[in-house]
Amino acid sequence: MEETLTHLLNGFDVALTPYNLMFAFAGAIMGLIVGAMPGIGSLAGIALLLPLTFKLDPTAAIIMLAAIYYANMYGGSFSGILLNIPGDSPAVMTALDGHRMTRNGRAGKALFTAILASSIGGTIGIIIITIMGPLLAALGLRFGPAEMTAIILMAFTSIGWLLGENPTKGGLATCLGLMLAVVGVDMARGMSRFAFGFPELLSGISFVPLVIGMFGFSQVMILMTDERRKKRDAAQAKDTDAPQADAVPMAQQKIRLRDSLLTRQEFFRVVPVATKSGLLGTIIGVLPGAGATMAAFLCYIFEKRTGGNGAAMGEGVIEGVAAPEAGNNAAAAGAFAPLLSLGIPGGGTTAVLLGGLMMWGLTPGPLLFTEQPEFSWGLIASMYVGNIMCLIVAVSIIPFLTKILQIPVRIIAPIITVVCVVGAFSVNNSAFDIGVMLASGVVGYFLVQYKYPTAPLLLAFVLAPILERSMRAAFEISGGQISIFYKSPIALSFLLVIVAICLVPMMIKAVRALGQRG
């Protein structure tokens, strides 16, 4: 521990030089901007900016790219909270409660909660990888195909009823997400699946146009509904004691930074949630192929299932914002553990970072910390500094962000439409993706109108390809034997949790029925 502290202090000597501070600050600003722009995300942002670092010092270059990566997690929540258009996939869960808070007149609180939780989760992730980086990387290697299959099946088991008020509707939304996820080419057999003659569908349905349509364009359709529908929704909300969607017209919200600060009670509601999600998110971030998106989904599910205010999540509470934001930022930090210690990228973004390291003549792995201590510990120390920079910059721009809400609907609706179209087109420079966005927007609109939750659909869409690859690999390793799942202690533990998730609610219901009869 003493040796680690000494290395970290030496790393701060590197990170706090004016030259490296300048690039950390530049990365933080660019990450916030890139994260808030739908359709770009950290992967595309870092890939586009990587050529700009070729002539830089390797330490300064990786400090800037790392700052872009974790600042992107901050920025992704901004458009999700304000416009219901998540900047990237991890912000999908944040938009569930965050945008509901905006429509209830609490946009500033939602933004401040997201920023605070992001900072707490990111700090926890950085502290953990500082102390236990190599150990966590070794733990991540124990999650093979069988273990990944089991943990994803556990997520599927819970999301159907956990994220929807009606378990049947939640299950149907999950099935729809699975159906959309299998569109494309079967990578094992090379056969087309559900492409219906469209060459553009052979590569599958792109996630970004889907999520922009489901959240963004459907929001435009909702904004443009007639007055009679608004009155009917208000009457239904009053009858069910649910928060009214338009309780405070967004164009009338004038929010100052002072109004956005959390009260003492709210602060102590956010900190425990962010701490739990930070710990869980770091572990998920270390797992190969998991990433910040899975961390955000699972942290939200975990808090809704175990949190003291879990029943209210989805209706616009700060716990629903804090859990996914802390989880995805912690996962972003956790992804550096296998990258630096073992040279194994956990996802697409860290794979680009790995390519950058190798381009600069650095070989990630166990010897990196001994052969290049100035670089490796300088990077870790810069993450502490960059996290603080992101916190300060993000909080300071809250009043500017909330001015978006003062734009009248007749102006903001066309603007959101343009953002949706540009975001969908920018992924593959394809007009077909615009069609996907429009179609998913219509589907999302009707899902909302008929009270079907969209979160299970999106989670199933994100996790289904990972589930398919993991399950195929597990059966190939075992020669088709299902025993691979219960011979692994980790996989067996998750399978037992699945059984408990399925049986415990039925047992509780049966016990209550017997008690009423008695």
Question: Could you please describe the fold and organization of this structure?
Answer:
With about 525 residues, this protein is mainly α. The protein has one domain (about 1-230, about 250-515). The chain contains 24 helices and 2 strands. It has helices spanning about 1-15, 20-35, 40-50, 60-85, 90-105, 105-140, 145-160, 165-180, 205-225, 225-240, 255-260, 265-285, 290-305, 320-335, 335-340, 350-360, 370, 375-395, 400, 410-430, 430-450, 455-480, 485, 490-515, and strands at about 185, 190-195. Strands 1-2 form a two-stranded antiparallel ribbon. Strand 1 and strand 2 (about 190-195) form a beta hairpin. Helix 2 packs across helix 18 and helix 6 (about 105-140) packs parallel to helix 15. The longest helix has about 35 residues, at about 105-140. Residues about 240-250 have low confidence and may be disordered.
**Overall tally of domains:** 1
Q: In percent, how helical is the residue content?
A: over 70%
Structural class: mainly alpha
User: Can you count the beta strands?
Assistant: 2
Terminus-to-terminus distance: 60 Å
Order of helices and strands: HHHHHHHHEEHHHHHHHHHHHHHHHH
Tell me what portion of residues adopts beta-strand conformation. Answer: under 5%
Average of per-residue pLDDT values: 77
What's the main sheet like? 2 strands, antiparallel
Strand order of the largest sheet: 1-2
Radius of gyration, Cα only, in angstroms? 23 Å
Spans of at least 5 consecutive residues whose pLDDT stays below 50 are 242-249
Shape field: globular
Number of helices: 24
